[in-house]
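Researcher: Next entry in the queue.
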Amino acid sequence: MSDDKTSAPLRVGRFAEAEQRRSIYSAVVPTGVTLDDVLAPTYWVHVARRLRPYDRIEVTSEDGAFWAELLVLRSSTTDATVRKIHSADLDPLLSQVQGIELDMTRVVHRGQLEKWAVVRTQDGAILRSGMENKSAAIQFATQYEQQQAAQPH
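Model: Structure for this entry, 153 residues:
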């Protein structure tokens, strides 16, 4: 008999498709939330019940500032302990899709959730958001500006 220690071969019951053992979630966090914030157990209070150990969470900042993959270690009804597997600090300027400036409005891309938006230049008010593409936002902005120009001053 050899002195080499060998492990018994892996049994079939310990081998399965990963989707049967854990879930992968996506979380888009608001602009200003940091990686340190999402590592705090209480950050997950509203979704902690859904999480199980070894679930993964892909976190993306709405403004594209960072991306991270987290591993759930423990969860309860009020919090979840997560560990950062890996992360990347992203340049928000690189993640923003180039918008355009019109006379009274700006067409901007506001991230994965708000998508394309039209912002009134005068006061920064969002006139409309959630548009799927830039051309729809430009069309809305153009119509808005035409309506404003047609109104008596």
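Model: The chain has three helices and eight strands.
Researcher: Noted, moving on.
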